[in-house]
């Protein structure tokens, strides 16, 4: 199980999610590290919204990878 978790972590580190909208460009890894950030003179609110969108996308990637790993939580619960 630990080996699978380590592999999942490695896969998430290799994932790249890019949001480029409304004057904001963000590249975030699947393990939610901001890799690139560009603000082309937009408001703080717009930047916050785009950061949250990128984080949500990375969470969705992690959830998909987790569910594919031994049946997700069902595998952990013995179901």
UniProtKB/TrEMBL annotation:
Record InterPro entries: YbaB-like_sf (IPR036894)
Protein name in UniProt: Nucleoid-associated protein, YbaB/EbfC family
Lineage: Bacteria, Candidatus Shapironibacteriota
